[in-house]
Write a structure and sequence with these properties.
The complex is a heterodimer of chains A (about 550) and B (about 375).
Chain A lengths: L1 H11 L4 H14 L2 H11 L10 H12 L3 H11 L2 H8 L12 H10 L5 H14 L2 H12 L8 H12 L3 H7 L11 H5 L15 E2 L1 E2 L10 H8 L5 E7 L2 E8 L2 E6 L13 H5 L5 E11 L2 E2 L2 H5 L9 H6 L2 E11 L2 E2 L5 H14 L6 E3 L8 H8 L7 E8 L7 E2 L4 E5 L3 E12 L8 E10 L2 E8 L5 H13 L1 E5 L2 E4 L4 E6 L1 E4 L7 E4 L2 E5 L11 H11 L2
Parallel strand pairs in A: 1-12, 2-13, 8-10
Antiparallel strand pairs in A: 3-11, 4-5, 4-6, 6-7, 6-8, 8-9, 11-13, 14-15, 14-18, 14-19, 15-16, 17-18, 19-22, 20-21
Chain B lengths: L7 E2 L4 E3 L4 E3 L7 E3 L14 E5 L3 H8 L4 E4 L4 E4 L2 E7 L7 E7 L2 E5 L21 E6 L11 H17 L3 E5 L5 H8 L7 E3 L1 H12 L8 E2 L6 H6 L1 E4 L7 H4 L4 E6 L6 H7 L3 E3 L7 H11 L3 E7 L1 H10 L3 E4 L7 H4 L8 H6 L6 H9 L2 H5 L16
Parallel strand pairs in B: 3-4, 4-5, 5-6, 10-11, 11-18, 12-15, 12-16, 13-14, 13-15, 16-17, 18-19
Antiparallel strand pairs in B: 1-2, 2-3, 7-8, 8-9, 9-10
Helix pairs in contact in B: 1-4
Chain lengths: ~550, ~375
């Protein structure tokens, strides 16, 4: 636990990639193999099952700390992280620290499932008392399941790849899918050839790089020609707004993986018939969308079924899904990621052709275009297509690992936008802790301001500091962590879509709202009205 | 009619009507008593200043030609029958708590303070009083300082490690206070201490005042870069990310501030190392200091005033929140829009008051109360 806590601290203390890799390698070189696998699991989002819920976790901390509940809450808002708050509030044990390994620590956590509540409490209080502040923080992170580190999976993979002398792409593939650190050994992970492949294992997703545009700076046809070359070398498709997924059929078994590496096979029962009809040894890449009458529905329809434990009949009827496939990664049991985009597309088309369920197995149609000029024109129809823009894929490119510049580009359309007044502010989390960074925006309804969206991204650090300064000096009221601020600051809010909502006061719900820019030039009176917002609703409804 | 309190909070600063003087006023006044030389406490434009002897040279350097009277700790000055005595605040060299006594009524204005003895300035001394006016910059229980010995051991190890890895070492801290505390605690066997001009100007002022500091070398255009890179560079917060600092690349840069206790704040500064080092009292330091005064009531001027006031009331103190314009040097590094004390310091002759007051005086509630003394309780704190 000591080494793991130190790893966390060291990683926090540098912003340099090479240094982070060095720290990770140092860690791998000094801990037992079982700890390495536990660390890998944690750093790739495979956290231990939560054994104590956050209500009890907080309650027991409060009891041990002898602090009033409100002060604990306010401390939390200052720190912006529950695990860290609790770690800081306990007295500093400067002499003590734990000699347990990470493996032992996680085994203890897993063993809690057989404990009574009273035993859990005793164990938790005992654990807090023997750890130093940094260890307590990392321990709390393990316990509360909010385990995020400032290190990308790529860096961790690079460190292991360096140590084991393996190719990073191979390793990335080997840590995909479902595995438990208790069963997967480090020796298995790094052996030169892996024989017993896990049949559910997905491939690492290839992610497109965005073509950078802002609402004021657009890419010209010449820019595209310059950056991408001849239009004839590219394949274009619509960019669908659904759930990116990999669908696997191996040995007669079906697996559906979402991009977050969640196994969601049971969440999409409608897709099983077409998957059963695929030949064994097939892996498809595509987007799962809600469809009705052959047309995709806006993302918020799909949203109603994400996160549901039970898919009721009503949900399945209201929000049926289909797949829009756009790539094939494995065919007849062979990894075909090395083939070109065009070759893989041909295979995908043949699979589609042979399948008996075209209503749930669509393939993303290719857009016919002969010049960047023409494609630019076609991109303007994205919204009617319920698409977010256009995907560009180089015809002779292989299927690569992760986000890579060069062969896959996403060219999104401009977001919808509206000028709104900030009316509430709340403190942020993580690196925005103790700064007012989460804002609620309103538009005019007659002479009243109605809130319609929350956004917390899009400003620079310098702008955030200025808004924070404004909020602290222009607070009208405080409701717990929320401050009502003097309506004065106007921002341009961008969003990808807008839909009717019965849950929100304004009657609309936005998709991906974010701040495009601070309109210093606009007084609050010139912000948009609810009518303007509702007009966008009309345009966007099909 | 109840008797008027000896000290009151006005829109110019803390005022003693009976003695006709202000303490740390932020608008020009005739008679100002200054707790310490930081820019959010010692403004330009007053006709007469009273401060501790060790604040003298720094105040001349920062404020220019001012009419300044200095005293020792424990020495009493009488203004219009009101006794004024300075006691050590332990914040920075020359920092003082101001005790004001009249007809048996005792008030103490803490200015900024810390309770740990840093070995550089005179350590904080609790002063018995009826009314205590306190800061609470770090008035939340998540702020707990480690003993500085441990912290400087870490800093010296880090410096040593950098030297071995051919990295320059840049440590950032406020030029009056943090800088001297660092300078006095570095292990000189590792190398030479180099200073940014702003820091060295303050060091020189302190030396003129008779303060003995470890030897430091000012970085100038003639400094040999490779030599400087082997030493440790002390720089003010305003140097972070500047071309001046980039000259010493590759370097490891450490930030010294109480805010470094929180991971989020540390990540925001993007420092290689965050040293949790503050010249303000931590949570338990504040409570023990307030408790030691034996005061009947306590007024919180800057920091987490709302929460800290509420907590003090919860545990049996009579605590009040008041609004002031203090809170420059530690808070300034967080809110860059706020004219930070460092920025002011670079052009010490220019009055920062106009900028500072912009936020407050534009408020409707305030313009009405303009120039009118507000009574306690419904003072400027009532707005927030």
């Amino acid at each position: 636990m000591k080494a793991f806590a130190q790893l966390f601290l060291s990683l926090d203390e540098t912003n340099k990639t090479n240094e982070k890799v060095r720290i990770l390698k140092d860690y791998f070189n000094c801990v037992p193999d079982t700890d390495k696998m536990h660390m890998l699991a944690l750093f790739t989002g495979r956290k231990p099952k939560r054994q104590i819920n956050s209500t009890l976790f907080k309650l027991w901390a409060l009891e041990a700390l002898h602090l009033p509940a409100w002060l604990f809450e306010e401390s939390y808002h200052v720190v912006g992280d529950l695990a860290e708050t609790i770690a800081l509030l306990f007295p500093q044990n400067t002499e003590q620290s734990s000699s347990k390994t990470l493996t032992e620590c996680i085994a203890e956590i897993n063993a809690l499932s057989t404990y009574t509540e009273e035993e859990k409490k005793t164990w938790l209080l005992q654990s807090w008392s023997i750890l130093d502040t940094q260890e307590r923080f990392v321990f709390n992170k393990l316990m509360t399941g909010s385990f995020r580190v400032g290190v990308s999976q790529n860096l961790v993979v690079k460190a292991v790849a360096d140590i084991a002398n393996l190719d990073a792409n191979v390793l990335t593939h080997r840590i995909m899918g479902s595995w438990a650190p208790e069963e997967y050994t480090f020796a298995q992970l790094i052996q030169p050839k892996q024989d017993s492949e896990d049949i559910s294992r997905p491939y690492p997703f290839f992610l497109a790089y965005p073509i950078q545009e802002t609402s004021t700076v657009q890419k010209s046809v010449e820019d595209l020609q310059g950056a991408l070359g001849d239009a004839a070398e590219w394949q274009a498709e619509w960019k669908w707004d659904g759930i990116r997924a990999q669908l696997i059929k191996r040995d007669g078994q079906l697996f559906i993986w979402s991009r977050g590496e969640d196994l969601s096979t049971d969440k999409f029962p409608e897709l099983h018939p077409f998957m059963k009809d695929l030949p064994d040894g097939t892996v498809l890449d595509g987007e799962i969308l809600s469809f009705r009458n052959g047309l995709p529905l806006p993302f918020n329809v799909l949203q109603t079924r994400i996160g549901r434990k039970n898919l009721t009949k009503k949900i399945l009827e209201d929000s049926p899904v289909s797949l829009i496939a756009y790539d094939c990664l494995e065919f007849n049991g062979e990894d075909i990621r090395y083939k070109t985009q065009t070759e893989r597309r041909t295979i995908l088309e043949s699979l589609h052709h042979d399948n008996a369920h075209p209503e749930i197995f669509n393939i993303s149609p290719l857009i016919n275009f002969s010049s960047w000029d023409e494609l630019s024109e076609i991109r303007g129809q994205s919204r009617e297509m319920i698409a977010e823009g256009i995907m560009l894929k180089r015809k002779n490119a292989t299927y690569q690992v992760g986000r890579r510049r060069g062969d896959w580009w996403k060219w999104k359309i401009d977001p919808l936008s509206i000028d709104a007044v900030m009316i509430y502010a709340q403190k942020g989390h993580g690196r925005r802790a103790d700064l007012y960074t989460d804002y609620t925006f309103a538009v005019w309804d007659g002479d009243k301001l109605v809130p319609f969206a929350k956004a917390y991204s899009g400003l620079t650090d310098a702008e955030i500091n200025k808004v924070d300064y404004f909020v602290k000096r222009n607070t009208l009221e405080k409701f717990g962590p929320v401050r009502t601020v003097k309506p004065e600051l106007v921002f341009e809010i961008g969003f990808e879509g807008i839909n009717k909502s019965t849950r929100h006061k304004s009657g609309v719900a936005l998709r991906f709202p974010r701040i495009l820019r601070w309109r210093h030039d606009k007084p609050k009176e010139e912000a948009d009205s609810i009518e303007t917002l509702k007009a966008l609703l009309g345009e966007n409804e099909l | 009619m109840p008797r008027k309190p000896l000290l009151e909070f006005t829109d110019k600063g803390i005022y003693c009507a009976k003695g006709k003087f202000y303490i740390d006023p932020w608008k020009p006044v005739d008679d100002a008593v200054i707790t310490h030389a930081h820019a959010d406490h010692a403004y330009v434009g007053h006709k007469h200043y009273l401060a501790h002897r060790l604040s003298r040279e720094v105040m001349y350097y920062r404020l220019g030609e001012i009419n300044l009277q200095t005293v020792e700790y424990g020495e009493t000055v009488i203004k219009n029958g009101v006794e004024i005595t300075l006691f050590p605040a332990g914040h920075v060299i020359g920092s003082a708590q101001i005790r004001v006594v009249s007809q048996g009524e005792i008030w103490v204005v803490s200015g900024d303070y810390k309770t740990e003895d840093d070995g550089v300035c005179a350590p904080f001394e609790p002063v018995k009083c009826h009314h205590f006016i306190s800061e609470c910059t770090f008035g939340m229980p998540v702020y707990q300082w480690k003993p500085q010995a441990q912290l400087f051991a870490d800093m010296n190890n880090w410096w040593q490690h950098n030297v071995e890895n051919n990295l320059a070492t840049v440590v950032v801290g406020y030029s009056l206070g943090k800088a001297q505390r660092i300078i006095q605690n570095l292990d000189l066997s590792i190398g030479t201490i180099y200073t940014h001009g702003v820091i060295e100007n303050t060091n020189e002022a302190l030396r003129r005042n008779g303060v003995i500091l470890n030897p430091t070398t000012r970085i100038t255009v003639d400094s040999i870069k490779e030599e400087v890179r082997k030493g440790i560079i002390i720089a003010p917060p305003s140097a972070v990310g500047s071309p001046w600092m980039r000259k010493f690349q590759p370097y490891s840069f450490g930030y010294c501030s109480g805010w470094m206790a929180i991971r989020g704040a540390k990540r925001r500064r993007a420092a290689d190392r965050g040293f949790v080092l503050s010249d303000h009292a931590d949570w338990s330091g504040l409570i023990s200091a307030i408790d030691a005064t034996g005061c009947e009531s306590v007024y919180l001027t800057h920091g987490y005033t709302a929460s800290f006031t509420r907590y003090l009331n919860d545990i049996g103190f009579d605590a009040h929140e008041v609004h002031t314009l203090y809170g420059g040097e530690e808070e300034g590094i967080e809110a860059s829009s706020q004219p930070s004390s460092e920025e002011k310091e670079q052009d010490p002759k220019v009055s920062p008051t106009g900028v500072d007051l912009e936020g407050a005086s534009s408020r409707d509630d305030l313009s009405e109360a303009n120039n009118k003394a507000l009574s306690l309780g419904e003072g400027l704190g009532g707005i927030l």
